[in-house]
Fold:
Amino acid sequence: MIRLGAQIFGFLTLSLGLHLGAATWIGAGAPQNMVGDEAAGDHGHAQLSLSAAPQDLAALVDQWSRPPEHSQVIPDVPPMAAPLAPMRPEIAPLAPPNLTERRPELAPQLQEAAPALEPEVPNAPTPTAPAPRPATRASGGAEAAPTTTTAATNSEDQDVIMRLMSHWGSGILRQLERSPSRPRGRGAATLRLVIDADGRLHDVRILAGTGQADLDTALLAFVAEASPYPPAPDGISAARFNFDLPLRLR
Structure:
């Protein structure tokens, strides 16, 4: 940088000297081609030969007189890489969900519903007819004719007893239906119950079973546990009665 400044200063000094010499000569009005004695003045002792500067020299002087042009040095900068556009990650398509309808799994029933006993009218025991009385002989040896009053009375009593027995048997069946210890299963059976007038059970047996030994045994225990039963209604004076109860489990 110092060397460049010294060169510029030297060029400016030389250019200034040349311009001053040319200006002095032109101002004096001397011709351009004076040589020898004419240029020496009156005495002719000093001689000065001046000539026009060539165009190349004038151009060189003009070039030296101009201030140097400093070119702006731009350092080589590597081109910046273009910003990368964000790329979406490629995601493999998910497999379609299995939309197969699944049936809801029902929780297993912990306890089956108690089978209902189909109410059926129990077969009331058929009372035995009273033995016919022997015919009495009338006085004088004539045999008295039998009267129909006793037969009519017995028929009316029989109907009353049947109605009372049917009502009593329905009460026994209702008590069995309300019992919480009914056996589980399906089937039909006919049981014979022997019950006294106070409602106590004296005997129970199977007349027609369900075909399932375990269920028949459970029915016998079920009838025994339900005792005592309702007592006999008024109008029945017998000590014990047999009831044939048809039971149906479902």
Summary: Residues 149-178 form the longest helix (30 residues).
